[in-house]
Amino acid sequence: MGTRERIIGAADEVIRELGAARATTKEIAKAAGCSEALLYKHFGRKEELFLAVLLEQMPALAPAVARLRATLGEGDPAASLQEFAVAAIRYFGRSLPLIAGLLAEASLRAGFREMLAGTGGGPHIPIAVLGRHLAEEQRLGRFPAGTKPDAAAALLLGACFHRAVVVSLVGGLTDLGTDEDAAADLVAAILGGAGPRDPAPRSRPKGVPDTP
């Protein structure tokens, strides 16, 4: 493992242990077994390092997007969307510590936004890509004609993010089912109930009241 990869791995570990706001370059360099000077040789500022953690160390959505795009017009669209949704749930789950730190710290958030502007990335990109994919499937008659693709994409990825947050907060305290089951239910809702899964009705998760 090269120095750059070692620093990224150390940053990931420190962020999870201390949170993004308290993950100083000094702590990260110590965990990586290098000097701060060497760290800054590879990363000009902390935001750049955090972006590398988000894009390189964590399971990126890019491979899942590529797999989804490869299914355009072929196979079962519901099954393809379910696979993508599972990948999104797990990506968001692993990204939460860094995302929470960025949202809580104004200076980190500003620096990160500047970095994203320079790379052309951001959380809106997967939504836009998924929306275009659904629009193309719609033109092929494989996605409900009465559904807005962009809205469906936002709803699906938003629900995947919510699932990751809920699992992070109460996972283990109540039965939330598997990510695969959650993805299947979300996709079925987006498709108006269509989908390959025909599950038996599930009982209300333990610990969830009948009313809000």
Automatic annotation (TrEMBL):
Region (Disordered): 192-212
Alphabetically ordered keywords of this record: DNA-binding, Transcription, Transcription regulation
DNA-binding feature ranges: 24-43
SUPFAM superfamilies with a match to the protein in the record: Homeodomain-like, Tetracyclin repressor-like, C-terminal domain
MF terms (GO), sorted A to Z: DNA-binding transcription factor activity; transcription cis-regulatory region binding
The keyword Transcription regulation is annotated on this UniProt entry: yes
HTH tetR-type domain span: 1-61
Protein name according to UniProt: TetR/AcrR family transcriptional regulator
Organism whose genome encodes this protein: Microbispora hainanensis
